[in-house]
Automatic annotation (TrEMBL):
Localisation: Cell membrane
Transmembrane segments: 6-27, 34-53, 65-89, 101-121, 147-165, 194-217, 229-256, 263-284
Membrane topology value: Multi-pass membrane protein
Assigned keywords, A-Z: Amino-acid transport, Cell membrane, Membrane, Transmembrane, Transmembrane helix, Transport
InterPro entries: ABC_transp_permease, BCAA_transport_permease
The keyword Repeat appears for this protein: no
The keyword Transport appears for this protein: yes
Similarity section: Belongs to the binding-protein-dependent transport system permease family. LivHM subfamily.
Name assigned to this protein: Branched-chain amino acid ABC transporter permease
Lineage, broadest ranks: Bacteria, Bacillati, Actinomycetota, Actinomycetes, Micromonosporales
One matching Pfam family: BPD_transp_2
């Protein structure tokens, strides 16, 4: 019983990490119709900014309020980079899909190279509060506090995103734009501001994933964002493009499947099962769990 509890909660922790990356990715594609392959860079920026702030920013540190301040700095850095990418590189390329892919892939590669040139290619130990390195007994299982932290953060981000999308003016514009961007434009609403805001939200969420992922893994490396981005794309496709709730459902399915299969099967079998799940969803429900079928 304790093994099932441990696998479930650690799987949910992994799912929370995937959701934090996938939520912004889903909104960006749903509204702006941009396949942002540089989204993993936002995660790396948040992780390295948090790592740097914990050791250099006045008042920040690896414990207590200092750690919260370091994470806030990392999240802000991710949001700023997201906005800058949209304004400088993506805005001139809307409706030019091939150019978007080339630019975002190139930016991702350049960003990783820049991080490697600045701080090296080897993983660096991540500053973590002492309590995140401990475990909490849950129904006989000793669950890492870092996983519990990820779950709580993902729940708060999901609630904040849903509240923003449902009860704010810009949230309503984003929801309407995901459903029918042409209609929103015809009503005289400047969706370009919403595009920039969505990139900022996506960058902030990915940066938070980078900071808490550093706590979860205990280290940070330039390629960390790229490896997580693969599973984030899978989560977005399974959940349905543009659906935050769908991304949450899909992240839970992917995280639990990966964790259980890797434990009871051979190493790497969980990744294969995740790809198989993606194939099944694409065959049976191409629009995803919470997506809407395309109309002609």
């Amino acid at each position: 019983m304790s093994t099932i509890v441990l696998l479930t909660l650690t799987g949910l922790g992994l799912a929370a990490l995937y959701f934090l990356v996938a939520s912004g990715l889903s909104l960006v594609f749903g509204l702006a119709d941009v396949l942002n392959f540089a989204h993993g860079l936002f995660l790396s920026v948040g992780a390295y900014a948090t790592w740097w702030a914990a050791g250099n920013l006045p008042g920040a540190g690896p414990s207590g309020f200092g750690f919260v301040l370091a994470v806030a700095f990392g999240v802000a850095a991710g949001a700023v980079v997201g906005m800058a990418v949209e304004l400088v590189m993506i805005r001139p390329l809307y409706s030019r899909t091939i150019e978007q892919v080339l630019v975002t892939v190139g930016l991702s590669l350049a960003g990783v190279a820049l991080l490697q040139a600045t701080w090296g290619a080897d993983p660096r130990p991540f500053p973590r509060p002492d309590w995140t390195q401990r475990v909490t007994p849950v129904l006989g299982a000793k669950v890492p506090n870092s996983g519990i932290l990820l779950i709580l953060a993902a729940v708060l981000v999901l609630a904040a995103l849903l509240g923003f999308l449902r009860y704010t003016r810009y949230g309503l514009v984003i929801r309407a734009g995901v459903e029918n961007r042409e209609m929103v434009t015809a009503l005289g609403i400047d969706v370009r501001k919403a595009f920039t805001l969505v990139f900022a939200i996506g960058g902030a969420a990915a940066a938070l994933a980078g900071a808490l992922g550093g706590v979860y893994f205990g280290s940070v490396s330039p390629s960390q964002g790229g490896s997580l981005l693969i599973f984030a794309f899978i989560v977005v496709v399974i959940g349905g493009m543009g659906s935050v709730v769908g991304s949450a459902y899909a992240a839970v399915a992917v995280g639990l499947l990966q964790q259980f299969v890797n434990y009871y099967g051979t190493s790497g079998a969980g990744d294969i099962c995740v790809v198989a799940l993606l194939a099944i969803v694409l065959l049976l429900r191409p629009q995803g769990i919470a997506g809407r079928a395309a109309t002609t």
